[in-house]
Amino acid sequence: MTDTVPTQQRRILLVPNVGRPEIVAKVERVVQACSSYAIAVRMLEDTGVVVDESLPVETVPDLPDAADGCELVLVLGGDGTFLRACQYATSADVPVLGVNLGHIGFLAESEVDSLSAVVEQIAHRDYRVVERMTVEATVIHGEKRLGHDWALNEVSIEKVSRQGVLQASVEIDGRPVSDYGCDGMLVSTPTGSTAYAFSAGGPIVWPELDAILVVPNNAHALFARPMVVAPTSRVAVETGVDSGPSVVVLDGRRVIDAPAGSRVEVIRGSRPVKWVRLDDSPFTDRLVTKFELPVTGWRGRSGVRPLA
Q1: Which residues are catalytic?
Q2: CATH number assigned to the domain with residue range 135-268, chosen from the 4 options 3.40.140.20, 1.20.1600.10, 3.30.420.40, 2.60.200.30
Q3: What are the tens digits of pLDDT across the range 27-70?
Q4: The whole model's pTM is what?
């Protein structure tokens, strides 16, 4: 396995889910296909070890700058792998492209059966890049700032102990909205509306719409409806001093501890995620396909393309 590649060469960062036994052959297919187009492949050290040493793969440490110098990040896996890869892509300000090897794979742009076509489109730069909104969360306790991070999908405020409920007070733009006894509070982006927020009863929001979703998770309250607020809003969740310590979980991956009585402030992220689109199919088609929604009674207008 090589340690370096020419700096003039086109380069991608490949982030696969190596926990899947069938992934090695697919990774090697991608490396070989990229090599035929004179595109260098970089991988993280913990995933690059699965590749045959004879293949031209550059390996780098698992650090935020892993995608520096790459033109995009290619993900082979499910939504969890995609969210991990977004950290490297956003840090390097390059787009991310997902190929689904998981179950639903809502964040993926393509399925694994189209892997060869995906590499060809990358080689010919036959894709476009759109931006997806993010959110940023700051955790404050008293006068002390305990942590700050961002998320593509959602910020989840959860009680550490499974006993009892989380006492949470929600504030929008400096004004109180309601108190809740709940399992947690979710503050989501439109991209995250089909993830954890959806499971908690939140609405599906088309990703072209900039908005922030506030979704109580299993709230024991008369007013427990999800709210959709402006992308410019500042959402704050204050945890009760008697409800014990909480955690603030970002995209299900990164955690900030929040002692009882903490305040979590969430605003629109300063940097969006750059997202590779391979075609112009609308979000509606993805929604129907991924959730296997019944549309057999749909007739549509004459000449409208039916769903595959």
Answers
A1: 79
A2: 2.60.200.30
A3: 999 999 999 999 999 999 988 777 777 788 999 999 999 999 99
A4: 0.91
